[in-house]
Amino acid sequence: MMILLTALGLIPFALGSFMNWFMMTRPDDLPPFTLFAVITLLIWTAIAFIANSRVKCTKKVVIFLNLVGLIDLALLGIQELLLGAYWNNLAGPLTQFYYLPLINLGFRLTNWSHTVFSAYCAAFVLMVAASILGCALRKKK
């Protein structure tokens, strides 16, 4: 089940890739950023809700569901904070795609900051909070 949770942690790559495709094919249309963010957080909450019924350990669900996001956040930190630029290979855009559905909310929460990395961190915190909420809802049920 932990491998499945880690694999499900890849879903934001697909959502971010779809969002990127949407923005590239419709450059004149403003994408529904808030809708993408809400859908992503609802999916994350639902996955945690379902997984917690099988795993029965909130800590494991939260850790393994957000493991890919944590690794992605570390890679973004290396690129942005240490190197000062994103990688020119496939890993550069892919790491950015992971948080793309939530980046608008991340910027809203970190409008005091002048770095994109703080918005990525806020997006990660939102995903962790959504997974904790999903587990808590399952325990109440």
Describe, in plain words, how this protein is organized in 3D.
With 141 residues, this protein is mainly alpha-helical. Helices cover 79% and strands 0% of the residues. Helix 1 crosses helix 4 and helix 2 packs across helix 6. The two termini are 21 Å apart.
Rounded to the nearest angstrom, the distance between the terminal CA atoms is 21 Å
Give unreliable regions as ranges: none
Mean pLDDT: 92
- Which bin fits the share of residues in helices? over 70%
Shape: globular
**SS element count, helices:** 8
SSE order: HHHHHHHH
Range of strand content: under 5%
Described by strand count, sense and barrel closure, the largest sheet is:
none
Structural class: mainly alpha
Feature tags:
8 helices, 79% helix, mainly alpha, 0% strand, 141 residues
